[in-house]
Amino acid sequence: MLTLTIPRQILDDMVAEARALAPHECCGLLAGKAGQVTHHYKIKNIVATEGGDAANFDEAKLAHLQRLAPEERADIAFVMDAREQSLALKDMRTRNLDLQIIYHSHPHSPSRPSVTDIQNATEFESIRKVLNLAEPLHLIISLEKPTSPVMNAFRITSGEVTKVGYRSS
Ligand SMILES: [Zn+2]
Questions:
Q1: How far is the CA of 90 from the centre of ligand 1 (A)?
Q2: Which residues pair with 31 in a beta bridge?
């Protein structure tokens, strides 16, 4: 797999977004071509939205989420707004870009995938095969140390997590 290059401006924007949404998690997609990230798509995290979007959850999960305070809800997971996600993927197709990165923030925890993150990534694997998308990396912005954010990228395939380096430009 090609080493990705991410513009410094996009990295800075993601940190700013993570800080603005804390204690909720932010999430989004990065896309580009031939290992160069060029486009940044911010996607709404519906778990952080009051009430959530019932259509995206099974009943047990929804009932559990509704018992939690918004902060607790944001902390356990992120779920991308399905409509915004599909518009972003459509825009990538129009521009002939590859989905390269799926990112989200960890307001209080380290920059490594949680059990839920690994499950979500594994679920996305089957979807992306149907959609015929390239394999994206998963990037996690950690604000555990507020003044020094950490952004690690990972490959997650079949439940296996491997840290992957990237360049900034
Ligand atoms: Zn996470």
A1: 25
A2: 39, 99
Q: What is the pLDDT of residue 48?
A: 73
Distance 101 CA to ligand 1 centre (A): 14
**Residue 9 Cα, ligand 1 centroid: separation in angstroms?**
23
Task: Provide the residue range defining the domain that includes 54.
Answer: 5-168
Location of structure tokens 């519906």: 46
Q: Classify 36 in phi/psi space as left (phi over 0), alpha (psi -120 to 50) or beta.
A: beta
pLDDT confidence of residue 50: 54
In the chain, which stretches have pLDDT less than 50?
A: 52, 54
Counted domains in the chain: 1
CB-CB contact of 41 with 57 (8 Å): no
CA of 125 to the centre of ligand 1 (A): 16
- Tell me the whole-structure pTM to 2 decimals: 0.85
Ligand 1 centroid distance, CA of 4 (Å): 21
Distance 7 CA to ligand 1 centre (A): 23
**What are the pLDDT digits (tens) for 111-159?**
999 888 898 899 889 888 888 888 999 999 999 999 999 999 999 998 9
CATH assignment of the domain containing 45: 3.40.140.10
Find residue 155's DSSP bridge partners: 162
